[in-house]
Amino acid sequence: MNEMLTWIDGLPSALVYLALSLGAALENIVPAVPADTFVALGGLLASVGRLDWRWILALTWSANVGSALVTYRLGYTHGRPFFEHGWGVRVLNARQMERMAAFYDRWGIWAILVTRFLPGLRSVVPVFAGVTHQPFLFVALPIAAASLVWHAGLIWIGFTIGRNLDALSSTLGAAQTLLLSVAAGVAALIVAWWWRTRRTSDE
Prior knowledge:
Elements: H1 2-10, H2 13-26, H3 35-48, H4 53-84, H5 88-91, H6 94-115, H7 121-131, H8 136-161, H9 165-202
């Protein structure tokens, strides 16, 4: 592990910053990409090499928030037409869309804040905030605030653990298992809501 860290540390700093930023950004487009790992690894690299944790925080945070807002914008501009025609109507009908918009109007800020800490859901919620045409600042501010707190915490963990990559993997694995369990519970509630409202709308 130390050899790998030494090899990474030998790469040009700009290249490492770029790779960490891309890893943080891709999560909102490809949810399977673990942005948390890239951010925490950045903290570890800052503790053992010449990278600056402040640059890592600024770059990974801005890349992650930026890509989330891109998906929000795509949902805003293309989401409604998709769900109004074809098989998109089978996913969300007009009545469900109204209910989801009402939910975002009432709880959207808190939903966005909480789900930024939950794997998988954090990449989906901004999209549907766009689909329901939520105002930009209504979406951008909680995404930016929650992501800043989360990324700062991950970098602190990586920086504190230092060279022990195995310990970092173990810590992240335990945290992700817990958060995935919470995310699965929330996802189950969403599916139950979808099924109940779907049946109600079809009656």
